[in-house]
Design goal:
Layout (H helix, E strand, L loop, with lengths): L1 H28 L15 E12 L2 E9 L9 E7 L6 E7 L6 E9 L15 E8 L1 H5 L6 E8 L7 E2 L14 E9 L4 E8 L2 E7 L6 E6 L9 E12 L2 E11 L8 E9 L4 E3 L5 E2 L7 E5 L8 E5 L14 E2 L6 E8 L2 E8 L13 E3 L5 E2 L4 E7 L5 E6 L5 E7 L4 E5 L15 E5 L7 E8 L2 E6 L4 E6 L8 E5 L5 E6 L7
Parallel strand pairs: 1-20
Antiparallel strand pairs: 1-2, 2-3, 3-4, 5-6, 6-7, 7-8, 9-10, 10-11, 11-12, 13-14, 14-15, 15-16, 15-17, 18-19, 19-21, 21-22, 23-34, 24-33, 25-30, 25-34, 26-27, 26-33, 27-28, 28-29, 30-31, 31-32
The structure holds beta-D-fructofuranose (FRU).
């Protein structure tokens, strides 16, 4: 009896120690070196483009290109995460797996409120994913017809999905790059409009039911940046001064303003068939090296919320993280601004960022003094008379990133030449620049700083830059230099993994 009790006691102790170890393992998951504390990153493995972003029943759904068996790009699935505040994400089971028609490439999702598709049952609104089936066998055989558009629907708020048995719904006419459908409801004509990347241009299609697509028009063969293939487009209206304009986002790889992949945009008119740009200038949503495949959430009303993949195809497969690879930008609110007669799209961090402000007091910094930098923070800098501004994030190893404004060149910049691990790919090291769009004397800059990234929003979001970095020790010091009148406020933010 005594022995039995002793054995039982030992078993209880072993169980308790196992439970403690398991808890430790869970906690250390989001604490690895370079792990973003403000940005969505998967618990493990590879991610690329944000996909299927739809707001439904007070929940933001984020699907994403996901390879669950490794930390480099591989056969694509759609991973899934949800959030009610755009910062704290809950990872759910994989939504879409590859099948006999191929891998699941990028695409969008809509709430089919009127059940135009007929997939809704028992009064339940179906969520519908419209994605590219990429057939790797067809690609190897050089058929040119290996990318086709397909549907899947969910009747349980995106948790489980049924692929449509009539897939594909839009067959490839013989265009090698024929992908990334972004679908929206065009209320004026009660029809769905699909914006599709078709190699070196955009092709618009329409359908009453998401199934029977008809070609409407093409855009862009001779307009915009063409240093690489056009991918992941988006089309949506934005209001300015009581007028509706249409914004067309076109991701491009390579050929971005600072090399590699980036997001260009056009502003103009759309009449349900044709997109007509207001001018033919090339402009970028984010001039930094590390925002790509950015598109917006559907079903958010007049609000337009944008999210990009926070890396660059030039080195996305090589960045020095171990358990997972790559993350998303912070969500950004898009708006239209008129500046010197030009229509520009501005981006700012979504207002929900206020929910992750730490309880510690906001600190006012003096120019040129060195301060401790919290693990994640927001820095707001303003001046009545813009001069050179240099913000330096550094560590005791002498590694640093500088971000700022160069008055003579009239450019904002991010310099990560001395930022720590830079040798994994030769184009990573560098100083990246962006134009200033306003000639106003006063200026404001907001920087969102995480363990491995900085996002710059200048002049109320007219110029945006994102840069990632991998220091050997976290940057824990900050200084801001420039004119004496600089107003500098440092706000600590809380990790999205602590709750
Ligand atoms: C863009 C992209 C898309 C494609 C997906 C594949 O980053 O190349 O065009 O659908 O990634 O993962």
């Amino acid at each position: 009896m005594k022995n039995n009790l002793r054995i039982l006691a030992i078993q209880v102790l072993m169980l308790a120690s196992f439970v403690c170890k398991a808890q430790d393992a869970v906690q250390s998951v989001y604490k690895e070196e370079h792990r973003p504390q403000l940005h969505f990153s998967p618990k493990a493995h590879w991610i690329n483009d944000p996909n299927g972003m739809v707001y439904f029943n007070n929940t933001y759904h984020l699907f994403y290109q996901y390879y669950p068996n490794g930390t480099i790009w591989g056969p694509m699935h759609w991973g899934h995460a949800t959030s009610t505040d755009l910062f704290h994400w809950k990872e759910l089971p994989i939504a879409l797996y590859p099948d006999s028609l191929g891998y699941i490439f990028s695409g969008s999702a809509v709430a089919d409120v009127n059940n135009t598709s007929g997939f809704g049952k028992g009064g339940k609104i179906p969520l519908i994913a419209i994605f590219t089936h990429h057939d790797p066998k067809g690609e190897k055989e050089n058929t040119d017809k290996f990318q086709n558009q397909s549907l899947a629907y969910s009747l349980d708020e995106g948790v489980t999905w049924t692929k449509y048995n009539g897939n594909p719904v839009l067959k490839n006419p013989g265009i090698r790059d024929f992908r990334d459908p972004k679908v929206m409801w065009y209320a004026a004509e009660k029809k769905w409009v699909m914006t599709l990347a078709t190699k070196d241009r955009i092709t618009f299609y329409s359908a009453p039911d998401l199934k029977t697509w008809k070609k409407e028009s093409e855009f862009g063969l001779t307009i915009g940046a063409h240093g690489g293939v056009w991918e992941c487009p988006d089309l949506f209206p934005l209001q300015l001064g009581g007028k509706t304009y249409w914004v067309l986002l076109v991701n491009l790889n390579p050929g971005g303003p600072n090399g590699g992949s980036a997001t260009q945009y056009f502003v103009g008119q759309f009449d349900g068939k044709t997109f007509t740009p207001a001018d033919t200038k090339t402009r970028w949503i984010d001039y930094g090296p590390d925002e790509y495949a950015g598109v917006t959430w559907s079903n958010t009303g007049v609000r337009k919320i944008f999210l990009g993949w926070m890396t660059n195809w030039s080195y996305a497969n090589q960045v020095p993280t171990v358990a997972w690879r790559n993350a998303m930008t912070i969500p950004r609110e898009l708006s239209l601004k008129k500046m010197n007669g030009q229509l520009l799209v501005a981006s700012t961090p979504v207002k929900e960022i206020k929910n992750i402000v730490a309880a510690t007091p906001v600190i006012s910094l003096n120019p040129s003094q060195v301060y401790n930098l919290p693990a994640q923070s927001e820095l707001k800098i303003s001046t009545a008379q813009i001069q050179d501004i240099v913000v330096t994030f550094s560590n005791a190893n002498g590694e640093r990133v500088t971000v700022g404004y160069d008055k003579q060149a009239n450019q904002y910049y991010i310099d990560r030449t001395q930022s720590g691990k830079t040798d994994f790919q030769k184009s990573f090291k560098g100083r990246f620049v962006a134009p200033r769009f306003t000639s106003a004397n006063n200026a404001d800059i907001t920087l969102v700083v995480d363990a491995a990234s900085v996002e710059l929003f200048a002049d109320n979001g007219l110029t945006v830059m994102t840069g990632i970095y991998f220091p050997n020790a976290t940057f824990n010091k900050v200084s801001v230099s420039g004119s004496k009148d600089l107003k500098i406020k440092l706000t600590e933010l809380t990790s999205i993994h602590n709750r």
